[in-house]
Amino acid sequence: MVEPLANILVIDDSPTVCKLVTYVLAERNYQATEVYDMESALELFELIAPDLVLTDILMPGIGGLAGISIMRKKWPDTAIIAMSAGAGNINSLDTLTAARRVGADAVIKKPFKPEELYPLVEKTLKLYKESSKHKRVLVIDDSSTIRMMLSRELTSCGFICKSAASMEEVLSSDDIVGLDLVIIDIFMPGIGGIGGIQHIRKNWPDIKIIAISGGWGSSESNDALSAAEKIGADATLKKPFEMAVLGATIDTLLES
Questions:
Q1: Which residues pair with 160 in a beta bridge?
Q2: In a domain, 1, yes or no
Q3: Distance CA 5, CA 31 (A)
Q4: What pLDDT score does 216 carry?
Q5: Alpha helices in the chain (DSSP H)
Q6: Helix (H, G, I), strand (E, B), or coil: what is residue 106?
Q7: Closest by alpha carbon to 140, among 181, 198, 101, 105?
Q8: What is the CATH number of the domain that holds 115?
Q9: N or C: which end of the chain has fewer CB within 10 A?
Q10: How much is the pLDDT for 91?
Q11: Domain check: are 225 and 145 in the same one?
């Protein structure tokens, strides 16, 4: 008997949707269990021990958003994909964005085709399998060299790492949702690091922030880092810095 690729819990108040999704997943050798409400899913979670949860958002009782929030806090090592078709005046994109905000790793709009679901499931599971710490880090720097270097090093250390060239790029995507840490350069075009730190601190107060800067000179860099601390950065590093120093700083922040 072939070992299933992963154990997946499918939650949807529509039995038809549940059966279709579990069938599609079984076709790719996933072990899928269907549950029709979030209350039952939460009760069975420890017994089922899923590697990934695929949940609808708009459901009676404990809805998908509340359920995702509960699962993310109690079972942080489980991957979560949210799905939604919206309902009435509720836009599906709004509900999916909200799902990312409360901790979903990925989202998919219903109705979807198997060829859309398969790569999303594979990618999400791969991120969790390869990332021993399951901590999410976003690097924001207008230098492609810095982004590539930090992303490579952080990924090799087991972090789920993404990068962006500007704060504007971050705000136009969902990459900032569900983050544990942001490493942000101060001197960038547009909003820049100072504005970015202020925005992150106001809207996502639980995200840890490391501000980095080489400045245009020693005094400018020191002043910028000092300003970053005053407006909410949890730590600052002056470029260039040793990766060991960055690693120690990250460990201290995430453990606190």
A1: 136
A2: no
A3: 7
A4: 55
A5: 15-27, 38-48, 64-74, 92-101, 114-130, 144-156, 167-171, 192-203, 218-230, 243-255
A6: strand
A7: 181
A8: 3.40.50.2300
A9: N
A10: 65
A11: yes
Helix (H), strand (E) at residue 55: strand 52-56
Using CA atoms, how far residue 157 sits from 60, 170, 175, 239, in Å, is 41, 23, 20, 20
- What would the pLDDT profile of 52-108 be if each residue is shown by its tens digit? 999 999 899 998 999 998 998 888 889 999 998 866 556 667 788 788 878 888 888
DSSP string, 56-90: ESS-SSS-HHHHHHHHHHH-TTSEEEEEE--BTTB
pLDDT score, position 132: 46
Domain boundary residue among 96, 114, 129?
A: 129
Domain count within the chain = 2
Is residue 9 pLDDT above 50, yes or no? Answer: yes
- Alpha-carbon span 141 to 88, nearest angstrom: 41
Question: Do both 179 and 211 map to the same domain?
Answer: yes
Helix (H/G/I), strand (E/B), else coil: 158:
coil
Considering the domain architecture, whether residues 157 and 94 belong to the same structural domain is answered as no
Beta-bridged to residue 139, according to DSSP, are 163, 183
Pull the structure tokens for residue 24: 């599609």
* Mean pLDDT in residue range 1-27: 89
Please check the confidence at residue 1 and state whether its pLDDT lies above 70.
no
Which class for 83: exposed (0-12), middle (13-18), buried (19 or more C-beta within 10 A)? buried
Query: What is the C-alpha separation between 246 and 256, in angstroms, rounded?
Result: 16
Q: Which of 97, 129, 161 is the last residue of a domain?
A: 129
Specify the pLDDT at position 175: 72
Chain segment 224-234, per-residue pLDDT in tens: 889 999 999 99
